[in-house]
Amino acid sequence: MIPKDPVMLLSFVNTQLRDFYPDFEALCKDKELDSRKIEEKLRSIDYEYDSKSNQFI
After folding, report:
1. Which of 22, 17, 53 is nearest to 38 (CA)?
2. Per its UniProt record, what InterPro entries does this chain match (predicted)?
3. Residue ranges covered by each domain of the chain
4. 26 burial level (CB within 10 Å; 0-12, 13-18, 19+)
C-alpha cells in the first residue's frame, strides 16, 4: 500500500499530508500505519517530521 523505498515513501507521505491530512498522526490513524516504522525509515535518509509545516523535512 505504501512505498518501501525511503525516497518514494517521503514523497508519498508529504503529498498525503499536504493534500489530505492536518497532521502525521491523522494520516497514520486513517491509513492504519505504524508511525514509528515510517519515522524510522525516513530518519534513515535524514528526514524528521515538522509539525509546524506538517511535512517531513
Report:
1. 17
2. DUF4250
3. 6-48
4. middle
